Amino acid sequence: MHIIVCVKQVQDWDIPPSSFKIDEATKVVTPPAGVAPVPSQFDTIGVEAAMRLKDNDPDAKVTIMSMGPEGARDVIKHSLAMGADEGLLLTDPLFEDLDWYQVALVLSAAVKKAEDANLVICGRQAVDWDMGVSGSGIAELLDWPALTICKDVQVSDGTLSVERVLMDGYETVEAALPAVVTVSNELGEPRYPKLQQIMQAAKKQVTVWSAADLGLDASQLGADARKLTLERLYVPVSDVECLIMEGDTPEEKAQNLAKALAEAKLI
Ligand SMILES: Cc1cc2nc3c(=O)[nH]c(=O)nc-3n(C[C@H](O)[C@H](O)[C@H](O)COP(=O)(O)OP(=O)(O)OC[C@H]3O[C@@H](n4cnc5c(N)ncnc54)[C@H](O)[C@@H]3O)c2cc1C
Q1: Helix, strand, coil % (nearest 5) of the chain?
Q2: Higher pLDDT residue, 36 or 179?
Q3: Which CATH superfamily, name and number, covers 2-225?
Q4: For 222, what's the count of Cα atoms within 13 Å in the CB-facing half-sphere?
Q5: CA distance 88 to 119
Q6: CA atoms within 13 A on the CB side of 188
Q7: CA–CA separation, 213 vs 192, rounded Å?
């Protein structure tokens, strides 16, 4: 089994939203300077899912794939320290500012080029743009089944069995490999790399592929080839008012709350 885990490099989600600058005219978001990017939260959980499969099948190969700038090497290294075997960095000026379809096109082209890959694991969504489409897009372009938002991933005799998280419970779904799985936080905490693993990760191979290596060019990756256009980028203005109910006792506070709701004609 060859598992490819898609790991996106994103801005640290601990950065307060107010620190980002949004240029509405150019539709560009600028994060605060000097904060190191991190792997997207759900993608590290994807690495954990792959490592649990490798724990049960030590012959399984786990490749960490990231599309982004040269700096995305750092998120690959972090995942390699969790025990993955190899890294794959997809980097090219043509890979900047892609839409969801083009992201899936690049990632699926790399899976095809890897030839022997038979399981792709993605996060349920990237924690920056939160679109949650890339995993299903990769599956569509590869013509593989997509099993989304999973909390448990098992493989036995070439059959994939997952537990999907639903609004009101869970469902178990099976599919034959090859397939694409997206994972959710219910899968559990990702393992923490030990110091020795971090040192070993530095020696693991990271292959670099460009657009040309994947047989892609500007006719597929340029602005004219986008399927979905970003119309507007802005900070929503919040007109929410917070009212603290006064009162010496819970009963008095409740009475004041009921009075305020009645005055607002809500009850
Ligand atoms: C300046 C700018 C302009 C944009 N304009 C548009 C636009 O016009 N139209 C539009 O649709 N989108 C636009 N986007 C959004 C951007 O293209 C999204 O990244 C894309 O739509 C995929 O959504 P997502 O990043 O939320 O990933 P999701 O679909 O939420 O990601 C799901 C999973 O896919 C994998 N994945 C995603 N990206 C990568 C990656 N780079 N490397 C490895 N794995 C990955 C990860 O496993 C991730 O957990 C723009 C972004 C920027 C910065």
Answers
A1: 35, 25, 40
A2: 179
A3: HUPs (3.40.50.620)
A4: 4
A5: 15
A6: 10
A7: 33
Taking the CA of residue 40 as reference, the ligand 1 atom at the shortest distance is: 49
- pLDDT at position 115: 87
Q: Compute the distance from residue 185 Cα to the ligand 1 centre, in Å.
A: 19
Task: Kindly give the distance from the C-alpha atom of residue 133 to the centroid of ligand 1, in angstroms, as a whole number.
Answer: 8
Ligand 1 contacts (CB < 6 A) are: 6-8, 28, 40, 42-43, 46, 65-68, 97-100, 103, 107, 122-123, 125-126, 129-135, 226, 228-230
Ligand 1 centroid vs 135 CA: distance in angstroms? 11
pLDDT reported for residue 243: 86
For residues 102 and 225, is the Cβ–Cβ distance under 8 A? yes
Q: What are the residue ranges spanned by the domains of the chain? A: 2-225, 237-267
pTM of structure: 0.89
Q: Is 182 exposed, middle or buried (0-12, 13-18, 19+ CB in 10 A)?
A: buried
Q: Considering only CA atoms, which residue is closest to atom 38 of ligand 1?
A: 8
β-pair type (21-23, 28-30)? antiparallel
**Tokens, residue 74:** 């750092």
